[in-house]
Write a structure and sequence with these properties.
Pathway: Amino-acid biosynthesis; L-methionine biosynthesis via de novo pathway; L-homoserine from L-aspartate: step 3/3; Amino-acid biosynthesis; L-threonine biosynthesis; L-threonine from L-aspartate: step 3/5
Oligomer: single chain
Distance between the termini: 54 Å
Number of helices: 14
Helix content: 25-40%
Cofactor: a metal cation
Radius of gyration: 24 Å
Catalytic activity: L-homoserine + NADP(+) = L-aspartate 4-semialdehyde + NADPH + H(+)
InterPro entries: ACT-like_dom_sf, ACT_dom, Asp/hSer_DH_NAD-bd, HDH, HDH_cat, HDH_CS, NAD(P)-bd_dom_sf
Strand content: 25-35%
CATH class of the largest domain: Alpha Beta
Shape: elongated
CATH architecture of the largest domain: 2-Layer Sandwich
Bound molecules: NADP nicotinamide-adenine-dinucleotide phosphate, L-homoserine
GO molecular function: homoserine dehydrogenase activity; metal ion binding; NADP binding
Number of strands: 17
Length: 428
Amino acid sequence: MKPIKVGLLGLGTVGTGVVRIVEGHQADLLSQTGSPIEIASILVQDKSKNRNISVSPDKLTENPWDIVENPEIDVVVEVMGGIELSKELMLACLEKGKHIVTANKDLMALHGPEILAKAAEKGCDVFYEASVAGGIPIIRTLIEGFSSDRITKIMGIVNGTTNYILTKMSQEGAAYADVLKEAQQLGYAESDPTSDVEGFDAARKMTILGTLGFHANVALGDVEVKGISNVTKEDITYGKRLGYEVKLLGIAERQDDHISISVQPTMVKKSHPLASVNGVFNAVYVYGEAVGETMFYGPGAGEMPTATSVVADLVAVVRNMNLGINGRRGFKPYKEKKLKTDEQIASKNFILLHVADKAGVLAQITQVFAQYDVSLESVLQHPNASNPNAEIIIITHDASKASINKVLKQFESLDVVHEIKSVYRVEG
Ligand code: NAP
Ligand code: HSE
């Protein structure tokens, strides 16, 4: 039986897992697809590098065009990362009728529409399950499982590195920099971890989820992004005391055809299932008008979980090849994108202030909230022996982002407010 030949672009964390699964599960893959699958050629930067997997040296190449130009290769699995070269190679592969599987969220978030259009033109598959939430099959779930429903909210812990860091800070009081180093050693972090800690990786994933969930072409620039580099142990401790865990949440919401998408550190009520998603685990909470609440949980990064999704896509491509139906997945955004204004974005908020410790301060502060029609759920004054300021934590009821911004601006000009220490969205 003629094997399906695969070109693998990259033999790092994910590529190594792909080779392990394809080689280790040959009999199962054959039974499921009807074809043997062979990794015929592998692109690396440096052939002489020591690797923790043994592959035949004559399969390795440092020239990507050896794979693109090889007429025997049917499917290209892109797990090298980066944007410009990957895009060029992918478009060239599609031009030659090769199907693509990729784990590259950066590329799909920025150039997904162009790549998918080229794939449709050429009758090719482009599958990218591993690009969001590693081992959780959330892309297939949104495209197929929820095709009958209207999704109104997606909240995701979609970056394993930051969840690992926040978990260790919360549970062990660990220092941010130490845990980041650990996450890098474990292969969770991107080559430039700024992309993880500043929320850009999560933003790219939310661009993909928002597009799939709301059937509109969400662009990366539509996502408001804030990372975790300013989250302090103090914030985590106060949050815990009040019944919250700090999580980097991607939040995509739809109301009357208007959408908003953001990534930000968020105080999540401990009773909400997202609050107990710890370590490198990811979870995506999806609310559909008909189905109600659902949540998908699993490992969000790492060699074998990510490779599981990549090889599942490979199986889908090979099945389609055998049925002659490639290029027909049929997901096409059909709704006009309308973004919410700051007046339309509403949430509860956690605000920590350092204020003068004297009579009448609380009245001045609550007066500002009242002026902008922001109603308060709770106000807590905390004594702090090491701090001459009084610490006040305010939890608001749902308030528009525009009103909260006006309140904060007014605080900046109030003498009694010495510092706005932190502001978090609250969920759950
Ligand atoms: P990685 O460990 O850095 O591996 C990248 C591989 O690609 C290496 O084998 C490298 O070759 C090769 N490569 C990179 N640039 C190249 C170039 N210009 N020419 C030739 N070869 C090149 O990366 P990774 O963690 O496996 O991630 C791969 C992709 O999967 C990325 O898009 C990432 O965002 C995505 N992803 C990763 C995870 C995860 O948990 N790591 C999870 C989901 C998605 P050398 O080995 O010779 O250096
Ligand atoms: N750096 C990413 C993360 C890898 O930590 O989630 C998975 O996409």
